[in-house]
Amino acid sequence: MINQVVKGSVRPEFDNLYLDMNGIIHNCAYPREGDGAVKKRLSEEEQYAAIFSYIDRIFHLISPQKLLFMAVDGVAPRAKMNQQRQRRFKSAKDAKEALTNARAKGEEIKDDDVFDSNCITPGTSFMARLCQHLRYFVRYKMQHDHKWRKVKVILSGPDIPGEGE
C-alpha cells in the first residue's frame, strides 16, 4: 500500500483485504473497558455476532475489489510451540490471580463469567465451532450481499498449519 493522505470522502481503492482473524477474535470474544478491565462475558452467540459485525464493517469500509483473505492461526511450527505454551500458562496464571484479587476486593464473579482466552487456540472445540460459524457467515454474505459476491473470499482456518506471529 502507498501511504497517502485521504481527503474528505475520497478513499483509495484496494484490490485485496487480508485479515488476521486472531486479533479480531480476541478483541470481540472478550471486549475490554477503557481501563483494560474485561466486560461481562459474552455468550458464544454474542461473540460470533461481534466477530461477524467487525468483519463486515471492515469489509464495507475498505471495499476490496478482488479478494478477502481471512487467516485464522493454525498449529504453530514446532520451534514456536514452547514459547506459545509458556505464554498460555502465564496467561492462565495471570487470569487466576486477577480473579482472586477481584474476589478479595469483594467483587462477585462467577466462574461461568470468566472467559478463558486460551480457548482461542487451534484444536480447541471453541475454535472448531467458531470456524464452522465463520464458514456459514461467508456463505450467507456471498448469497445476500452483492459486494461480497464481487470478490473471491478465502478463509484459512485453524486446521491449516502455520500461524501469523
From TrEMBL:
Matching Pfam families: XRN_N (PF03159)
InterPro entries noted in UniProt: 5_3_exoribonuclease, Xrn1_N
GO cellular component: nucleus
GO function terms (MF aspect): 5'-3' RNA exonuclease activity; RNA binding
CDD domains: PIN_XRN1-2-like
Any one GO biological process: nuclear-transcribed mRNA catabolic process
Domain Xrn1 N-terminal stretches: 4-165
Family designation: Belongs to the 5'-3' exonuclease family.
Protein name, per record: Xrn1 N-terminal domain-containing protein
Organism this protein belongs to: Lotharella globosa
